[in-house]
Each structure stands twice: as structure tokens, then as C-alpha cells.
Amino acid sequence: MPWEDGKTRYVGAGTVTLADGREVSVVAALVLKLDPEAVPGFTYDRHTTWVGSLHTDTEDDLWDASPGLLTLPDGRTGTFMTTSGSPDFVGVSGVGPAPFGPLREADAQWHAPDLALCDEPLPAETDEVQQAVDEREREARRGMTAEDLQSHYRVRWIAD
Question: Is the peptide bond before 102 cis (omega within 30 degrees of 0)?
């Protein structure tokens, strides 16, 4: 749905498929960055059409879904790369068509890459102090609704 700035957004529930195949419930705040039909020579290989953030109340690490598969309640899916953030609250950049907003002719020609599923646990890369800070931030976000997240955080992206 278009907001007051004219951009189409989705704020609500979703499910992310992690690299090990587990599914994690998330709250998504997403925005269409550009209209593929308005860009001459548009290809999904060179342009990102959607960006946003994902939040989970689970103990799962959303960085384990890079690339990840986001499924919205209506069944539409979108592939994304995690770009920033803590394990439970990440920024994402879409790869291919957005899983929300209008369906476009260019969308039918794009085929999502296969997700690489990993059976090995990923190594921890942060020290104990950083892990404690991350856990405090994560606890502060636990239980936030989509509206709470929108009021506390803004979706950021690099302008064209």
C-alpha cells in the first residue's frame, strides 16, 4: 500500500527460512525502492527494488539467512541478503522481485537462486562484551509489535 511519501511498503508478519532449513517468525518493515518499469535497461542482476528490516523474538540469528527466503502470509516470497544489524534485528536488501506490492511483467522473467543450506553450525564471531551488549538490545526489542518497531527504527537505504 502507498504511504504518504508515495512509496509502497509492507509492515507485518513473515517467515524467514534459515540456511539450515529452519523457519523463523519475523516482523518485517519493507519498502519498494524503485519501480522496475521506470528504469531503462532494468535487470534484477543490477538493481535492488526493495529494502527494509526484519526482527525476530526468537533466539535465532537472522544473519544465518544470507541469502534468505522471506515468505509473507499471502504466500508471496522474496530472496534477500542481510546487510546490517544485530542477530535479531537486521537490515535487508532484496534480490529479485519484492514479495509485496504490485506484480510486474519483469517479475515473471526472474528466477530466484537456490538457497544454499548448511548443516554445519556457523562460528561465533563476537567477543563476550559485544555478545552482552547485543543480548541487552535484543531483550529491549523482545515483544515489540510492527508499530513499535516502526516508531523506534527507520528503514535506511542508499539513495539513487
Answer: no
Spatial CA neighbour of 113 closest among 159, 67, 148:
67
Which pLDDT value is given to residue 115?
56
Question: Grid cell 523506534 — which residue?
Answer: 152
Which pLDDT belongs to residue 13? 94
The DSSP secondary-structure symbol of 106 reads: G
CA-based Rg of the chain, rounded to a whole angstrom?
16
- Amino acid identity for residue 136 in this structure: R
Residues 6+ apart with CB under 8 A from 34: 47, 49, 160
Q: Does position 131 have pLDDT exceeding 60, yes or no?
A: yes
Cell of 116: 544454499
Check pLDDT > 60 for residue 5: yes
In three-state secondary structure terms, 17 is strand
Looking up cell 539450515, which residue turns up?
20
Closest CA to 24 of 1, 55, 66, 2: 55
CA distances 15 to 21, 106, 158, Å, are 12, 25, 25
